[in-house]
Structure formats: structure tokens, C-alpha cells
């Protein structure tokens, strides 16, 4: 399974881990409005999401988030099924953090 992290632990984790990639699985519009530093957009609604994920190296550590954690939980499960091992998930998403910034 994946590990659920608080926002603070999530950000500290991917910023300290040189082998980590942070994936924002919200839409491009959501990503363009605001995203975590160094996050890469992998739009959950994209028809090429599975193909795009398959191109990622399995030996990396992945930190995955979305707005409410629904999409990111599904992506975590998809990646787990694809053979990815090191997956961390932002518990409850970034919705509250975005509202603070708005």
C-alpha cells in the first residue's frame, strides 16, 4: 500500500529525497493556478495518464497529491498495480492549503 502523509511531512519528504518526484494529478488548470514547488503535472483526466505513468522509472520515490485526495488515491493504486514500490500520498489533498492562499 502507499503511505499517507500530512502536508508538512509530504513536502519535507519530497524536498529532502534526491530520488523523489512529486506528482500533482489535478487538471492543468488547477495546476496552473497553484501547485507545490517542484511538482510535475500528470492530469488524472488525461486519456494518456496510464501511458505517461508507465514511462516513469520504477526506482524513484513518488509523492502524489490532488485537491481532495480522491484522484491521487486512485493514481497511487494504479501505480502500485504497475509495480511502483515507493509511493507517498498527501492525506486530504491540498484543498485547505489552496483556500488559505486564495
TrEMBL record:
Matching SUPFAM superfamilies: Rhodanese/Cell cycle control phosphatase (SSF52821)
Domain (Rhodanese) ranges: 16-102
Residues spanning the signal sequence: none
Domain of life: Bacteria
InterPro entries: GlpE_sulfurtransferase, Rhodanese-like_dom, Rhodanese-like_dom_sf
UniProt name for this protein: Rhodanese
Species per Swiss-Prot/TrEMBL record: Portibacter lacus
Amino acid at each position: 500500500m502507499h503511505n499517507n502523509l500530512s502536508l508538512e511531512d509530504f513536502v519535507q519528504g519530497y524536498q529532502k529525497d534526491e530520488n523523489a518526484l512529486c506528482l500533482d494529478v489535478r487538471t492543468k488548470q488547477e495546476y496552473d493556478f497553484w501547485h507545490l514547488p517542484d511538482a510535475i503535472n500528470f492530469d488524472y483526466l488525461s486519456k494518456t495518464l496510464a501511458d505517461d505513468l508507465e514511462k516513469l522509472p520504477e526506482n524513484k520515490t513518488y509523492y502524489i497529491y490532488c485537491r481532495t485526495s480522491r484522484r491521487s488515491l486512485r493514481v497511487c493504486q494504479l501505480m502500485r498495480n504497475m509495480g511502483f514500490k515507493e509511493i507517498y500520498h498527501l492525506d486530504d489533498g491540498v484543498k485547505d492549503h489552496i483556500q488559505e492562499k486564495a
